[in-house]
Amino acid sequence: MQYILKYIKGxxxxxxxxxxLAIFSILVVYSxxxxxxxxxxxxxxxxxxxxxxxxxxxxxxxxYFAHKLxxxxxxxxxxxxxxxxxxxxxxTLLTGASINDASRWLVIPVINQTFQTSDLAKLALxxxxxxxxxxxxxxxxxxxxxxxxxxxxxxxxxALILPANFSTAAMLFVTCLVLxxxxxxxxxxxxxxxxxxxxxxxxxxxxxxxSNVDSRVGTWKARIENFxxxxxxxxxxxxxxxxxxxxxxxxxxxxxxSTQRNFLPxxxxxxxxxxxxxxxxxxxxxxxVLLYLILFYRGIxxxxxxxxxxxxxxxxxxxxxxxxxxxxxxxxxVNLFPVTGQPLPMVSMGGTSIWFTCLAIxxxxxxxxxxxEEETTQNKFSNG
Amino acid sequence: xxxxxKDIAWRVxxxxxxxxxxxxxxxxxxxxxxxxxxxxxxxxxxSYTLKEKNIEAVRGxxxxxxxxxxxxxxxxxxxxxxxxxxAITDEIFYDEVDSLAFKLSELFQDKPMVAYRRSLVNAxxxxxxxxxxxxxxxxxxxxxxxxxxIFRRGxxxxxxxxxxxNKRQRPFKVLAARTIGYEREGxxxxxxEGAYSExxxxxxxxxxxxxxxxxxxxxxxxxxxIEPEDGRDIYTTIDVNLQDVAESALLKQLQTHKADHGxxxxxxxxxxxxxxxxxxxxxxxGSYYEGYNYAIGESTEPGSTxxxxxxxxxxxxxxxxxxxxxxxxxxxxxxxxxxxxDSNHEDGGWGKITVQRIFxxxxxxxxxxxxxxxxxxxxxxFIDGLDEMGLRKPLGIxxxxxxxxxxxxxxxxxxxxxxxxxxxxxxEVKQTPLQILTFYNAVANNGRMVKPKFVERITKGRKTVExxxxxxxxxEVCSQKTIDKVKLALEGVVENGTASNLRNADYKIAxxxxxxxxxxxxxxxxxxxRVSHQASFVGYFPAxxxxxxxxxxxxxxSQNVYYGNLVAGPIFKEVADKVYANSLEMHDPxxxxxxxxxxxxxxxxxxxxxxxxxxxxxxxxxxxxxxAADADWIVTQTGDSSVTIAPREVxxxxxxxVVGMGLRDAVYLLENQGLQVAVEGRxxxxxxxxxxxRVAKRGMKIKLELS
Lengths: 384, 707
Description:
The structure holds 2 protein chains of 2 kinds. Chain A is mainly alpha-helical. Chain A has helices at about 1-5, 10-30, 35-40, 45-70, 70-95, 115-135, 145-160, 165-180, 185-210, 215-230, 235-250, 270-305, 310-335, 350-384, and strands at about 95-100, 100-110, 115. The two termini of chain A are about 30 Å apart. In chain A, about 45% of the residues are buried. Chain B has 3 domains: about 55-235, Penicillin-binding protein 2a (Domain 2) (Alpha-Beta Complex), CATH 3.90.1310; about 245-585, DD-peptidase/beta-lactamase superfamily (Beta-lactamase), CATH 3.40.710.10; about 605-705, no CATH class. Chain B has 21 helices and 31 strands. In chain B, strand 13 (about 330-335) and strand 14 (about 340) form a beta hairpin. The chains are: A mainly alpha, B alpha+beta. The interface of A and B includes residues 34, 43, 182 and 286 of A.
């Protein structure tokens, strides 16, 4: 233990939270994988357990390397990543493999691994935003000097994600707005942008509701309709999810005792929070929510201690992005939001999601590691 | 820079506050789902994970008339085991698993004991609750299983779970297979199984099943929610012995003549009950099997057997009589562009003969002449005559797939100048073998046409639920005078006509041969000649008091012999001989039985209840002299012209005198006084073990001897 701790730097609480989430992930995924295992692997649940564990191990490896790197390098890298992400998004949109009728995935040649490009774009954009905001702090209230150059990449990336994955685009957009708010962009600009966005969304929904196009538009339409109708046309997924939550009780049915996993589609991903409550009860559910809130709180502490604005915004932006996505996923599971395809970061099964989550946490840890080092040098300086 | 940091800080805290609110909202929503919507949702769970599944009711049996099983459902079981039943402790399990494995291996002989032991132990370790022992287990095996270690602890404690399925079996295999039929999903039902499906199938029960991982359904609890109601049984009219004779006689003859197919139907004259119905079809390899119910389904031109219908029509309409002379010429006659032949046209034909003789020798030209002469002016009258005898209508039997009869009408497009002449000897009309038989049966039954009957009664357990009555199709196909005439003609066919090879000394057969030509396209390319033949014989026996009618049809005998008397006749004879040998009522009694008349015309009566006895005598119009004005119990004295009744003393608390009474009255009286009655013998009470007039004590035993 001591040996490991010696090599692990940065916020210990975040390391702890990540580890706890990973353990939860293995437990719940192993339990809820049954239907998938029966479908594709002849009942071999161990196959998925092994695969998931390996993915998590690789993720922690990524986290380790990310936190070893000086976070100032990420400023430049964000630019590169964004330049890489935009063409990739375009490519995905045009040729991507479709899973559940949404072309969000790109198959990486050679290793034949599906790869969700929006995850890369998301990370790149948030980092890039932190860079832009910190660089323009001197004239941040300026419209042409700050707001416009910052808005252009945001709109571009979101627009590219939108056709294939509405919820990710919307979520990323909100995350960026919050980050801009924190980064002291003129509130009036943000509010007017939100107003434009709301009107645009209204028009968009109106078009969707009145169209009779199949594919994704049809899915959105159905989902929105289902959520709005609520009682009358009962949404099967939401219903199953609610049953899982209702039967969980305070302490839950116990690990591996979920029965709803047989009926819940994507019990290992989109609705994993329902499975958590079913097996571990309200206590388990609250615990998961708290873990994410703690993660965000630690992110804020790191941001406050960071000597540079870039570090602060990077830590806040990434931790907010993760936690916001987690809360959206949980809100869907408890039927607070209409069904979207957002995985629960660190917990849901799925390679890309876990790896980018780990990278993000690694970057936050890198900021915190740098804070600690600076603190020790400062302490040395003041002492000596 | 400090200003900037402060500015950022409040924004961050505001965001954090919002995020915390969001998190709280999620928790509150989850709690609402649990607390407010919870009860309703938890109830819904049942409907998703539990389901009512049908339990198949046991299909009813099909019996032959003597009670032999023709079709039955044999239960087979899927046997499973709950090795983690609460009642099976480690101690019980590991103590007995060896002997259980040994017994299983010994019973099923399919896996060694160690293999059974391993799978049982693994099942327990893995926490299985529904471990498969074996599928398709027979009832006797299941009974043995219930006595095995662990299992024998009973329904709840032994962990043995079994699910019943049913398999249909025909113990007599091919025997009447098509008539018994089958019912399968996706195939239109065949035979009696199909016709009586509603009766046979019963009502399915219901059982709660729970879905467990892997999509397997496991029964919940040990009792069915709704017990299935088993199907009813049907008793057919089929006699297994006669069916066997019919089938083997048909098979032998078909093999001899290498015929394509054939059928035999035996029918009871009065009731229309089908005693035997055999259908055989030639396979590619030359063997025969029951592949199609030809007797019911195949509608063909019957040929000479139809001459009976033509003759009856002409007789009824008064155009001919049996003694009229008709010129049959030299054996061939031109009708427009077609030539009609008689069977002996090479020997110069029949010349001038009587109508009776025409029928006996089956002269085509003779029949054609009779009909042509009678109906040339108004052919429709002939058609109407046939119609009135019910020959145009299907019989409407319950078995699906009856062939449609066809009688050409004058209004039909194909009606031509030769139609009358050809219809007279059975062409340009179509009848199934069963329809022809029903018509001949009507003649045997003195004109009353009854519908062929396949099922006698429907029973539930041993109780009869429904008797199937004989249905009359046509009350009178023709006058009794005509019946008498054609009966003589039919007897003549066997006595000195085309079927004289069937004549025998024991009993008389009446019937008609038929040899029809059939276009060959029905039989494919294996038959080289342009036409093939359908040989038939239909008739009834004994001729003077008809009990049974029978038809034999053999299609496409491929050898040179194709005449009805030679191909179909022997089958008829064999079946008739067997029926005759089996039926006592057909034999003339060896000695005339004397009538033993009672010495007095007044019946003798037991003593007993006054009201019952008086009622019976008054129903029988027998005078009663009463000396017992208001007694309940009486003794009777039979006189020459009347019965005298006198009171029998019955007093409370005293043993009554029951001598001379029937058992019912005696037991009633004695048990009323609290006595226990033991009985020996049958008839009327002769002695009683306790003298009358003794004080009766509750529980006293009294023995009655009856004789």
